[in-house]
Specification:
By secondary structure, the chain is an all-alpha fold. The chain contains 7 helices and no strands.
Length: 153
């Protein structure tokens, strides 16, 4: 079995755990916020993120097993790492530090990193790029909700 089938899922599990840790630490504060009436129930977030992480893992594995140049490999690997960092950083800013405004900026950066990843992945493996569309859509929705929470609080 190739090492990537262990390393890539382990990496995303670590990212997920880090984000969950920051989110959990801020739940008491989050419950005090005024949120839009159409905010999903808490269980929806867990299901959505589980699906998104599975899609990210599959995307990364498809990319890794596609033939590409060293330059493409390092660029795309860097984008996956940047994306993961921003993903966790958003949870840190929003839930742990309660910095709603700064988390909006992180959310925009997260969207930009997803777009960059999809753009770079497309010529290498279009399926890997398309698997990130739900992630992009969810983060766009999260950005909208983030702005509304900032506005109301």
């Amino acid at each position: 079995m190739e090492f990537s089938y262990i390393l890539i899922p382990a990496f995303y599990i670590a990212v997920m755990i880090a984000g969950m840790w920051f989110s959990h630490k801020g739940m008491a504060w989050y419950r005090t916020l005024t949120v839009p009436p159409f905010m999903p129930q808490p269980w929806v977030f867990g299901v959505a993120w589980a699906i998104l992480y599975i899609l990210m893992i599959i995307s990364a594995l498809l990319w890794w097993h596609s033939s590409q140049s060293w330059c493409e490999t390092t660029t795309i690997a860097g984008l996956y790492l940047i994306n993961a960092f921003i993903n966790v950083h958003w949870s840190y800013l929003f839930f742990y530090r309660h910095m709603i405004g700064w988390s909006i900026i992180a959310n925009v950066a997260l969207e930009a990193s997803i777009v960059a990843l999809m753009y770079m992945l497309w010529p290498v493996n279009p399926t890997a790029a398309l698997l990130l569309v739900p992630y992009f859509t969810w983060i766009l929705y999260a950005l909208f909700m983030n702005v509304l929470i900032w506005w109301k609080n």
